[in-house]
Design a protein that fits this description.
This is Heat-inducible transcription repressor HrcA. The chain is an alpha+beta fold and 337 residues long. 47% of the residues lie in helices and 17% in strands. The chain has a 5-stranded antiparallel sheet, sandwiched between helices. The chain has a 3-stranded antiparallel sheet with strand order 4-5-6.
Length: 337
């Protein structure tokens, strides 16, 4: 066995043992637990070389070693194939995401499932639905001058808003407005909805113009909501499971997770590799997230939106990468239907 591949096997063994035990790893433990085919003395020499290259380090006065951010990076870069999920994990993904046609529920299910699979904080950037079109529109009188406006998109997304109408109107007035708007909006995407409503409102009789104007404002707000960038999270309690992973405080990390602008910027900057994944480790992240690793994958139309996990650098990278990619791919297939 050549020297370089053996050192990589030693590094891989150190990463795997440290991720599993959170205890610094010594040469004797490596020889006992892994089929390295060499003596403890040779492994110590390899560990000394790895330490000199900045790939492992000794915490405090411990005789063992732990991976550095640079060591984790080399380990991750050498993962050539992302292993598939187990049959049980695949069934769990399919059952949970097939359980609803409502996109809001689907997003919530996805982020909770990813947190459960990885035992990390799961983050999901809401999909851009400009490619979706209007499937249906409902306007229901609730009495006392209030109307419930329900917008249903081809993606399955359902949004609603209640509108207060100052001037009196009849059920017939409401039906005229609804049918006129629906006739011009059906099959139209959010980006072109405003222009379609501009045309529709010109065809509505003067007696229903006030009603139409109020309902148009509600529809504009619903379309705008669908185009906003936003993040949903699950599993933040997982950060506190092993407080030793964060030598200082998880407070700043939790604050960073609450800052949607920070997370959106991070996800936008992450480029996918050949496995369809992005991995940022430790100091590759800025600010309060410099003690964490972030694994993300694109999903949905054009793979623009991302979902992923945030956790300590001491992370099961192969397993986490597999879970992130699997949920992203399954979510993409559902959204494409």
């Amino acid at each position: 066995m050549s020297e370089l591949p053996r050192r990589m096997k030693v590094l891989q063994a150190i990463v795997e043992d440290y991720v599993s035990s959170r205890e610094p790893v010594g040469s004797k433990a490596l020889v006992d637990r892994h089929d390295l085919g060499v003596s403890s003395a040779t492994v110590r020499n390899d560990m000394a070389a790895l330490e000199e290259e900045g790939l492992i380090a000794a915490p405090h006065t411990s005789a063992g070693r732990i991976p550095t951010d640079k060591g984790y990076r080399l380990f991750v870069d050498r993962i050539s194939d992302v292993r598939p999920l187990s049959a049980a994990e695949k069934r769990a993904v399919q059952m949970l995401l097939d359980a609803t046609d409502d996109i809001n529920d689907m997003m919530a299910h996805s982020v909770r499932l990813l947190a459960q699979l990885t035992q990390q904080v799961a983050i999901l950037q809401y999909p851009h639905l400009d490619s979706a079109t209007v499937r249906h529109l409902e306007m229901v009188s609730l009495g006392h001058g209030r109307v419930l406006v329900v917008l249903i998109l081809s993606s399955g997304k359902v949004d609603q808003r209640t509108v207060a109408i100052e001037e009196p109107f009849t059920e017939t007035d409401l039906d005229v407005v609804k049918q006129t708007f629906l006739g011009h909006l059906q099959g139209v995407g959010p980006a072109h909805a405003s222009a379609a409503m501009e045309v529709a409102i010109e065809l509505i009789p003067p007696t229903e113009q006030h009603l139409a104007g109020s309902l148009r404002e509600a529809l504009e707000a619903l379309f705008a909501t669908g185009r906003e960038d936003r993040i949903i999270l699950a599993g933040t309690a997982n950060l506190a499971r092993t407080p030793g992973d964060f030598p200082y405080s998880i407070g700043p990390i939790l604050e960073a997770l609450e800052e949607q602008v920070v997370l959106l910027k991070l996800l936008t900057e992450m480029d996918q590799d050949l496995n369809g994944l992005s991995v940022r480790i430790g100091t590759e992240n800025s600010g309060s997230l410099a003690e964490t690793s972030v694994i993300a994958a694109g999903y949905g139309p054009g793979q623009i939106s991302k979902l992923g996990v945030v956790g300590p650098t001491r992370m099961d990278y192969p397993g986490t990468m597999a879970a992130v990619r699997a949920v992203a791919r399954y979510l993409s297939r559902i959204l494409a239907q």
